[in-house]
Design goal:
The structure is a single chain. This protein is an alpha/beta fold. It is about 40% helix and about 25% strand. The protein contains nine helices and 13 strands. The protein has a five-stranded mixed sheet with strand order 4-3-5-13-6, with helices on both faces. A four-stranded mixed sheet has the order 8-12-7-11. The protein has a two-stranded antiparallel ribbon with strand order 1-2. α1 packs across α2 and α2 packs across α3. It is elongated. The protein starts with 7 loop residues before the first helix and ends with a helix.
Length: about 300
């Protein structure tokens, strides 16, 4: 069996330089001489026969396409090496260390409190870190290695074939109207009945397209008068009587932050629900602690 010509130390220095965009900054972070970082990366490039960085005079470093590919692989390899080390030292029985999760902003209030509580109970030595963002930002963070996996809706673009998704829950769309609305005494509604009303749109990337598409199934076009990237602001605008909206998560209360009240109505017709997914990069092996956190997410009720 042939052994690789590069070392884990070289990969560590390469990752630091890539993340910092500078040999000097990487050396400062690693607390070593800049010459050691430069030499390690030069030897790595020689061994792999690849140019990993474009070096800009006075402007730092930019990864080449080969460098970007290696960055993800290097992070994965170092993660595996740390797992092997922990197992060899006999600490494999107790999961410990950081897990960084990406979470779609509107899912966070529903999943994260229960996840933190479950993790504290079952894996108290695991340190959970969360990045709350919309879908595109989470996809970028996955590809750059900034997060281990993401809890999000399946709102991906068709080109996102490098991502693996596991559905853990279904979230059908529903309508909210203000208390006192002409349809507020209903339990179900056809979207065509709301055609005369203005719409308050949850204006997040991908989400906005999804909600517009749901309205389009009724043969009408939404009259979007108000927009917000905040789930609770949308609810408050509706409670104020400014229109109706479509959402997917259902709070346990119909009261808004401002004291107003909304009424939730189920949609008539067969419309596919959004899928709540655990999303990760294809081919990237998760750490044992990340897998354990995923297992907890799979059993949290939605």
């Amino acid at each position: 069996m042939t052994t690789p010509g590069f070392t884990l130390v070289q990969l560590r220095y390469f990752i630091a330089a890539a993340e910092r965009g500078s040999m000097t900054a990487a050396a400062d972070e690693l607390r070593i001489a800049q010459s050691a970082v430069s030499s390690a990366i030069a030897n790595l490039e020689h061994e792999l026969r690849l140019q990993l960085f474009i070096r800009h005079r006075a402007r730092g470093l930019t990864l080449t396409s080969a460098g970007e590919r290696l960055l993800a692989q290097a992070r994965d390899l170092l993660t595996r090496a740390r797992d092997v080390e922990a197992e060899a030292r006999g600490s494999g029985g107790t999961l410990s260390g950081p897990v960084t999760i990406g979470c779609f902003v509107t899912l966070a209030p529903y999943y994260l409190p229960a996840l933190f509580a479950a993790c504290d109970q079952h894996h108290p030595d695991v340190e959970l870190n969360v990045v709350e963002a919309e879908a595109e930002h989470l996809h970028q963070a996955l590809r750059s290695g900034g997060i281990d996996f993401a809890l999000t809706y399946d709102l991906s673009a068709p080109t996102d074939t490098d991502l693996h998704r596991e559905t853990i829950a279904l979230a059908p769309a529903y309508v909210i109207v203000p208390a006192g609305h002409r349809l507020a005494d209903r339990t179900t509604v056809d979207l065509a009945e709301l055609a005369p009303d203005p719409m308050v749109l949850l204006d997040l990337p991908y989400s906005r397209d999804y909600f517009r598409a749901v309205v389009a199934t009724s043969g009408t076009a939404p009259d979007v008068r108000y927009r917000s990237q905040s789930y609770e602001t949308v609810r408050s605008l509706v409670a104020q009587g400014l229109g109706y909206s479509l959402l997917n998560q259902r709070p346990r209360t119909d009261q808004t932050y401002g004291g107003g009240e909304i009424v939730a109505l189920e949609l008539r017709g067969d419309r596919p629900p959004l899928e709540v997914t655990i999303t990760a990069v294809n081919g990237v092996r998760q750490t044992a602690r990340a897998q354990a956190v995923m297992d907890l997410l799979r059993v949290i009720p939605f």
